[in-house]
Amino acid sequence: MGGAMASTDGTARARVPLAAVAVLLGAAVLAATISIDGSLRAAVGLAALAATGSFWGLGLLGPELGSTDVSARTRAIVESGSVGVVCVAAGLSLYYVSVHAWTLVTGEAAAFPDLLFRWDAHWFETIVQYGYDEQPVQEGKLIGQANWAFFPLYPMIVRGVVTLTGIPVATAGTVTSVAALAVGCAFTYRYLVLTRSRMVARIGASLLAVGPYSFYAYTLYSEALFVCLIAIGFWALHTGRYAAAALAGAAMSATRGVGVLFGLAFLLHLVWRTDAFDPLRSRGLGRDRSTLEAVGALLRDRRIQLGALIPVGLAAFAAYLWWHVGDPMAFASVQSAWGREPGDPFGRLVDGLLGADGSDRYLAGFGILGLAAALDLVRRGRPVEGVFGFALLIVPIVSGLNSIPRYVFGTAVLVYALADHVSRNEWTKALGLVLLGAANVLLLALWFSGHNIVN
Hints:
The chain is mostly helical. Helix content is about 75%, strand content about 0%. It has helices at about 1-35, 40-60, 70-105, 110-115, 120-130, 155-165, 170-195, 200-210, 225-240, 240-255, 260-275, 280-285, 290-300, 300-305, 310-325, 330-335, 345-355, 360-380, 385-400, 405-410, 410-420, 425-450.
C-alpha cells in the first residue's frame, strides 16, 4: 500500500514540471505570435498577462484553496493555467498563419491586430480614445448611431492598457482580449473537469480558443472578457463561492447588458442546488411559519444578498448615461439606429429561415441551433446552464438576427454543450474537430473580407 502511494505521489510530482514547461512554451508562443506588430512591449505584456492571469485567477478562486494538500492545489492551478495559456497560444498561432496566408493571397498587408480589426471594433475604439458620445452621429451612413450601445468595462480595461503601455488601441484590444481568453479557457477547463471530464474540458477550452467564431476573442471586441466572466461565474457557483460568483455577475452586467441575466442563473442554482429556499419550501409543506417570516428569512440569507450585486454593473452604466445624455436607457434606445426593433423572436427565426435571403437563413439557422443546444443542456440535467444560455440568446433575437453567431460564441455554456457532443467518442472527436476547424478558416476569410454574416 505504501509503495503504491509513493508511486502515485511521484507521478503527480512529475506532472507538475511538465505542465509548467507547457505554460512556459505557451507564453513564448504568445509573445512570438503577437509581436508581429513590431511592439516588444505588447509581446511581453501579453505573455505576462496570459500566464500570470491564469495562475492568479485560479489561485485566488480555486476550489482547492481550502485543502491542506498543497501538492493537489498546485497541480490543479498549474494544470488549468497551462491549458489556458497553451490553448490561446494555439489560437494565436492559427490566426498568425491565417493573417499571413490572407496577405499572400490578396496582397492586403496588415499587422495581426489591424487585420482582425473589423465592424464593432471601431465603436470600441471611439470609447477608448474619446469616451462616450454626447449625441448620435448626425450624417452619413451611421446617422443616428452612437457608442452608447457598447458597455464600459471592456473599453475601460483597454484604455488602461493603452495608458500603461502606450501601444495602439487595436494592439491593446488584442492584448486585453487574449489575456481574458487565456483566463477564461483556464476557468472553463477547471469548471468542466469538475462537472464533466478532462476530455470534455480540453475540448471545451480548445473550442473557445480555436473553434468557429473564436476570432472575436482576439480583437477589440468584448467577447473574450464576457466568456471569461461566464466561466468564472459558473465555476464559482459550482464550488459555492457566492461572493466571487456575484462579483463575476456584476462584471458581466458591466460588459454586456444581457450579463444581468446571470442573476437568473444565480437564482436557479440556489433553488436547485442549495437550501436557500427551504423557508419557502417548509411553508409550502404546511409547517408553522408565516409567509412573511419565510420571505424575511430568505432575504436575510447572505447568498440572496450577494446575488443582488449582479445588476450593479448595468445600473452604474444606466446612471452614467442618465447624467451624460439624459437617458438611462440610451444603450437600448439607440439600437433602433442599427435597425434593431423589438419583435417576436420565434417569428423572426421562422421568417429568417423561410425567407429568400441566404444570410438571414444562415443567421436564423444558427440561432435555432443555439437555442436547441440550450434546451439540450436542460434535457441532460444541466438546467442552470441551459436556462441561462437560452435567455442570453433569445434576448438579442427579440430585436433582430444580426450578430447571432457571435452571441452564440459569447454564450460560453453553448460552447460547453458543443464540447459535450464532440467528445462522445473517437469518431465524433476526430470528425467534429476537423469540421469545426475547417469552418473557422472559412469564417475567418469572410471576416477578413467584411462579409455581414460575421459582423
